[in-house]
Amino acid sequence: MCQNPHQSNPSHFQGSAEEAMTASTVEQSFEQYIQGMKFFDPHVHMTARTTDDYQALADAGVVAIIEPAFWLGQPRTGLSSFKDYFATLVGWERFRSSQFGIKHYCTIGLNSREANNEALAEEVMEILPLFLQKEGVVGVGEIGFDDQTALEEKYYRAQLELAKEMNLPVQVHTPHRDKKKGTERSMAIALEHGLDPKMVIIDHNNEETVKSVLDQGFYAAFTIYPFTKMGNERMVEIVKQYGPSMIMINSAADWGISDPLAIPKTAALMKMKGISDEDIRLVTYQNALDAFAQSGQIKESDFIHGMEIDQSLKFNGNTVLRGGQAPRVNKNSLIIS
Amino acid sequence: MNISEQLFQALSKQCQPKELDWLKDKSSKDANSLSLSFVMVPRFIEKQELEKSVLDDTAKILPDWNWDGWTLDRLARVYLLSLCQERGLDQEAYIKKINLLFDTAEMNEAVALYSAMPILAYPEAWMNRATDAVRSNVGLIFDAIAFGNPYPKNHFSELAWNQLVLKCIFNDKPIHQIEGLEARNNEALIATLVDFAHERWAANRRVPSQVWRLLVPYLTVAMLSDIEKLIQSDKESDRIAASLVLDQSHLAEAKALAEKYKNQLPAVPAESWGALEKPEPIYQPA
């Protein structure tokens, strides 16, 4: 969840000029490093993306994704907008994703920015339980702090209670500003509410926050923004330093400048830098799967061999994007037929 | 036996004892718990496709209701919905409850709701929902209202019916799965279909061969040039469709046309239009 005040998303950590060079190499030829790999992106806002992105994800080996509920770039003004958005996450977007053979899950929550509208937040809290019980909802998220206001804290706490009650994992957004303190505070509050740290995924980490997150037993997620702006090499260093356990990577791609292929590209960089295939698999697939499968809502067999084995989608083998459109199109073809 | 008892009997043929216990427990609860259980079904009921022994029950329960391709969790959800009307809700409360389920439905819940439409109380109350499902771009939702479902046949206006058939063709799906195709066939639909076929031909595309079955009762002399075009098609299935139309039409000029082309027309298949009842996608990925 990122605002875009200038030209691009602010990185959660920045890279150097040399790193940008390597990055550009990976950018151009990442596919050859990741042949046969499968990826799970636990944080990507597909409602903000095009079908080209879905196609690129499928082609790069992304087999499953989680779309956390977040804000839309501007505040919503009424409950119906929230309701329709949540319904989209479990409905239309799930279907759109299935057209590209990608299994779509989501987390549902009241995001930190909009927690600051107390009257609306109260109404949203009332409908959250209904959506949290839905099939394929794998957690409460993304919730946490943005400006670190009292209202943000109030609804963060209320949603932690909801997660505990419903035995769902929590996806915690950590703030861009005052990140270190915000992250510590997010974890302290989660522990205070009696959540098991392994049920909590602390998102958007950097070198400054990761040690404490792992030491306290939480999952640590890292958001990779476009290569030219961001030091993926640091991600590689983090995996080298801390090992693959409890670490996962995501793209957090949204309506800002961001890259849905961040995971495959980072996997390629890791491969170039000598990280083992098994460790790459853990941080780009398995750990995210393990963390969110604690919801009881993820069946790896639904996507690991492709989506066609999902009986509920197999009926007649015929689904449509829009009447008469084939979901896969050859972009290089000059002929429009 | 009422419908919910018959549905439970069908479920008991395939459910595991543990699943049946859960359903029994939930089915004794009030309307509020029923809608919560409706949401929770996939946590407790497997998603296997229905077995043949279960499918055999459907026609007995309701004419033209066909559960082909349904999964067990869908049937369980339809069962729970069938119980809602036994909970003594008045009309307003009942409609409000079902509407809330629609408004917040995820994809599989929506599919179950549309599948249950023929047995929901106050059928007129769901008309807008049903026509919305025909407009849906979600294939599974369209299928749930269009196929094996007697609700459109029994309740759609002619306009809504014609939209359903056209959308089905437009969506590249086989029309024979629509219940009531013959009973609800009408002249306005045929006029639109013929225009539609001409547009497709202009774009060097075709319409699925079985669509021509709808012309039989309304065939006019003006349409015979379209049938001639089918006779000259390089698709065997189009030529079979032409044979069938000419064979089944009572139009004298149709007989003359059949005579004229008797050496080119394939034999009328013994299974009639059944020979052409298959998916015939027109839009193929590049």
UniProtKB/TrEMBL annotation, chain A:
Region annotation (Disordered) ranges: 1-20
Keywords assigned by UniProt, alphabetized: Hydrolase
Transmembrane intervals: none
Lineage of producing organism: Bacteria, Pseudomonadati, Bacteroidota, Cytophagia, Cytophagales
One annotated GO molecular function: hydrolase activity, acting on ester bonds
Organism listed in the record: Aquirufa rosea
Pfam families, A to Z: TatD_DNase
Entry protein name: Hydrolase TatD
Polar residues: bias regions: 1-14
Recorded superkingdom: Bacteria
UniProtKB/TrEMBL annotation, chain B:
Highest taxon, organism lineage: Bacteria
NCBIfam families assigned: EboA_domain
Protein name: Uncharacterized protein
